[in-house]
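Appendix B, Record 12. Input sequence as logged:
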Amino acid sequence: MDGNGRWAQLRSLPRTAGHRAAETTVIDIIEAARAAGVEWLSLYAFSTENWNRPGTEVDYLMRLVRRVVRKHAPLLLARGIRCRFLGAADPRIPRELAQDFDDLATLTADNQGMTLTVAFDHGGRRDIVQAAKSLIRNGTPADEVTERLFADHLPFPDTPDVDLVIRTSGEQRISNFMLWQVAYAEWVFPDVLWPDFRAPDFLACLHTYRRRDRRFGGVPPQTNGDTS
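Logged structural output:
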């Protein structure tokens, strides 16, 4: 969800105004994804590297996220959306916010609709390191380590591999996002800044994805002897 700061800068507003405007987009895209039949939606809200931002901005984001979680919890519950938080391990996260995360996850745990994963204080490299440490602690022999077993030690191992990554604002970087799970993801980079991103933009990205030829390293089926 990229472009909040640039959105605010273009309007001669503080960066916090861009973060605040992003709330509307978050809810719009959650609703659009659910309506489109998306079963798993992940939102990259705060990375392990985002702690390097100015302290005033980080503090504002913590307060904003807490307000958003509390405000929209009834809607998420009513929509049958199961909510989970990927990361959220840093002790710098305010205790009250961490509790709000736990409360929302518990509140929606039995929902059978779309699963919404909010990546907050998330880093793909950290997840991979933690999985390796878990295998070592379990005494798993090196010869027994497989990709499937390794994935079982990642956070939320029931999460399927990512099919589509949408990065708004035109930036084209992975930024440490779910590095294991995006191995064969399709990528779309709309130029729209996140606060301006809306349901039609999201559906356009889905349309682009559905037109992709996903070969997973293979070749297309041969037809009438044509191998081109």
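The chain has one domain: 4-122+164-209.
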